[in-house]
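Appendix B, record 7
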Amino acid sequence: MQQSWDPRGEAGAALRRAVEGFGSQVLGSADMLSGLLEDDVPHLPREVALLTAAARSGTSARLAERVRQGISPDQAVSMAAADMATRTAMDASGAQWAVGEFARVLGHPIQVATSPAPTPLAEPEASTLLPPPPVPATNTAAVLAERDLTVIADGAAPPSRGLAGTAAVATGLAGALSLFWLLADFTGAFEVITVLQNIVLLVASVAAAIWVAGKARRGGGFAAVFGITAAGISGAIYYVAFAAEISFLSSGRDRALEVAMGLLLAATAIAACLALTGLARGHYLARHKVRAAARVTALAGGGFALANIIPQQSYGGSSYSIFIGSGIHGWWILWAIMFLVLVALPPLLGLFIPRPDVLRAMLLGWLAFGLSWQISWIPVHNERAAPGLYVTSILWLIVLVGTIVIAAGRPAAQPAVAGPS
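Structure tokens (predicted):
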């Protein structure tokens, strides 16, 4: 029975977005392609299964080889579809459609694939042929270059579960170690604030750890981990330095606090590095046309870091911020500079993340750190909120709203490589 696949072209558009964002090698990585398509078009499970099967059966390599041999794109599609149907016992029309979509994103002008011919080897009719593009591209590298996109090496591989598992352990450990800051033995309102900010870090870290461990090849988990730990390195450095200056604790408790904070810094830094490696290895970072919501959140996130230069609190006529205060001197100035860089890094790096779901995850991780940081500046007793605290709070809220907008939006479909549909 004749069957129409992807009548609105949504799955084909999702496949094009995957190639545009992550390079041609995504067509040979079934697990990665499946995750991308399931996130983009979850309402098209049949089409996603067909395209994933095409990736698993080596369709991209077969098409490229046959075109190099001088075989016409349409005949190459028919031959690859027949081979795929034989290998997978898949419906012939479905195989023809899936291979046709692969050929289209590789830049080969072929017949419309949503209503395939009755048999996989049937010759296309001239009336159904689409006109070639103004500047024909013979391979994926040329297509990506024409669109000013980064071409990623075909030898790269998606992130492994081992990498994700290690990142999950380091992230969860960092969240648990942050609770050891309670050994500093603060009292009253200071203790409440300390408990609140570290509970936020713990919950967010555990959530990110579960996310990256459960969906190692989706990118969102790595992004969430990087969002909270890259910025969190600055907080961990602060804890290490402050713990070394505390003199009112017993020697045993003081030693335990210093060791715990040192481990916290190590775990946070390891988690951030592993997360960045996972994002790079999974090809989740690429140059692309940045949408307005992503630009706004990047600017607000970078502004949040810079706004910490402005006094956040005042007490007894004195003002305090990361650069201002009686205790800010020497290497604390270096720490403040590192704070500016590390806290601004995740939202700014978001400008190079084309997938909205991965960008959303990174911003969620960053928002968790930002919330914890804002809690630490809550005025208590005779302290007063300074102008900087209002500015940073507003900027944090802008990032929150931007994240919601990014999460609610979906990428718009783009024209097919072979011509208008």
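Remarks on this record: Residues 112-157, 411-421 have pLDDT under 50 and may be disordered. The beta strands are 313-315, 318-320, 384-385.
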